[in-house]
Specification:
It comes from Circinella minor. The chain has 11 helices and 14 strands. With 434 residues, it is an alpha/beta fold. An 8-stranded parallel β-barrel has the order 1-2-4-5-6-7-8-14, surrounded by 4 helices. Strands 10-9-13-12-11 form a 5-stranded antiparallel β-sheet. Strand 6, helix 7 and strand 7 form a beta-alpha-beta unit. Bound molecules: 2-acetamido-2-deoxy-beta-D-glucopyranose. 2-acetamido-2-deoxy-beta-D-glucopyranose binds next to strand 11.
């Protein structure tokens, strides 16, 4: 029960906070008021790629940026039975898919309303994600002209008002890129238009609404479909947070088994992607985004692949694949991209709740689990199947990395994939304690 003095204290804190935020000229009070220049020079990324940094000597955030440290996606097609609100700072409901007229659809409005209500009852913020892997077909033209931008901004603003949202998450996979769905629109000016769109969205949304984006492991592409070496400096003012999708780095599309979500990579990169959470964070910082606006996205699932000859603890995980795209766990179903003549395939995704219930981490059900030093993630093998995944140990290494490098926080995909004891969510709690 709240007493009068609690109320008074809260009032004093609120007034103080508003004063500090105003004095600092802070447009988005949820973010640190540290100047970008300070951040860049004080947050040195580790120089070695083979060890988890042990230093935590990073200046403590002094502003309420720590209010949004742990962020979880939920998916409308697989909502968790129960959301452990007390272990989270923000939930992102996904996805609202824009059609070619910029209207948002393919989500359940009543469901979203009840989640926002539940979140607000728990004093947590709720965001709506727009786009997604299969929902990015029309972004390019939607941000490409003044008139379509205006329509798109209007429908997002309407959604924020209708559903009482605290934040908007843009998940465009990806601007001017050949890496997304084959029939996505693309344009050399995508990244520039994206920025103009976000700026216009900021003007239109109610004061205080956060805008963040799910982003690839490399900065937004330039006009030549290459990752930008340096981004327009306005990007850091336009978005509150950049949620780096540090997963799906390797999978059954590669020549060799590679880690789904490597924290680091070493030289065995032939046949896998030379990308890691660490390389992604460095690339975004080099492109001009302050570390405290970067969030490291971590998976609550692994990926399975079939190899030519069985892997063992001594062979390591980096074995040649046989080219078959085998089924992951019981939740994995064949799906096709929303393009003409697209072929249905298994993703090979294997959710943590399946990994845990089959006892894979404890060498049950025919599986043996080893640790991949290079990526700081576990892998399991069973005959000619190899599974790369994350467990509490690898997630804690990622939390440690995020804290040591002064990142804004950690994002996860997605909440329902955890086990009933919230084992993985519990492993991430360290990001919330400064
Ligand atoms: C599982 O097997 C691997 C490889 O033999 C071994 O290194 C590991 O310690 C075992 N794990 C458990 C929990 O027994």
């Amino acid at each position: 029960m709240k007493t009068l003095s609690n109320h008074l204290l809260l009032l004093v804190q609120t007034v103080l906070f508003l004063f500090v935020a105003l004095a600092a000229g802070c447009k988005h009070p949820e973010h640190s008021t540290t100047s970008p220049a300070d951040t860049i020079t004080t947050t040195a990324a580790p120089t070695t790629t083979d060890a988890v940094p042990t230093t935590t000597a990073v200046p403590e955030p002094t502003t309420p940026s720590s209010d949004h440290r742990l962020i979880a996606y939920i998916a409308d097609w697989a909502l968790p039975e129960k959301i452990a609100w007390d272990k989270l700072d923000q939930v992102i409901y996904s996805f609202a898919v824009p059609n070619e007229n910029g209207e948002l659809g393919e989500f359940n409005g009543d469901q979203l309303k009840s989640i926002v209500e539940e979140g607000h009852d728990n004093d947590k913020s709720v965001s709506l994600s727009i786009g997604g892997w299969t929902g990015s077909l029309y972004f390019s033209s939607l941000v490409g002209s003044e008139s379509s931008r205006t329509k798109f901004v209007k429908s997002i603003t309407n959604a924020v008002e209708e559903y009482d949202l605290d934040a908007i998450n843009i998940d465009w996979e990806y601007p001017n890129s050949a890496n997304g769905v084959a029939c996505n629109q693309n344009d050399p000016a995508d990244t520039a238009n994206y920025l103009t769109f976000v700026q216009q969205l900021r003007e239109s949304l109610p004061e205080g609404t956060l805008i963040n984006a799910a982003v690839a492991t490399a900065p937004f592409n330039d006009e030549n479909q290459q990752p930008s070496a340096s981004l327009d400096p306005e990007w850091k003012n336009a978005l509150d947070g950049f949620y780096i999708m540090g997963y799906d780095v390797n999978g059954n599309w590669n020549e060799k088994v590679g880690p789904n979500a490597p924290l680091y990579f070493k030289d065995q990169s032939d046949g896998i992607d030379s990308v890691s959470a660490d390389s992604a964070v460095k690339a975004w910082i080099d492109a001009g985004i302050p570390a405290d606006q970067l969030y490291l996205g971590v998976p609550f699932y692994g990926r399975i692949a079939q190899v030519k000859t069985g892997a063992t603890s001594s062979s390591g995980m980096y074995q040649p694949l046989d080219g078959k795209q085998i089924k992951g766990d019981k939740y994995d179903e064949k799906a096709a991209d929303p393009c003409p003549n697209a072929v249905s395939t298994f993703s090979g995704m294997y959710q943590w709740r399946s990994i845990e219930s089959q006892g894979i981490p404890t060498n049950s059900s025919g599986w043996e689990t080893s640790w991949d030093e290079a990526s700081q993630t576990p892998y399991a093998y069973n005959g000619n199947r190899v599974l790369s995944f994350d467990d509490p140990h690898s997630l804690q290494a990622k939390v440690k990395y995020a804290k040591a490098n002064g990142l804004g926080g950690v994002m996860l995909w997605s909440l329902e994939m955890d086990d009933v004891d919230n084992t993985l969510l519990n492993a991430l709690q360290g990001i919330r304690n400064d």
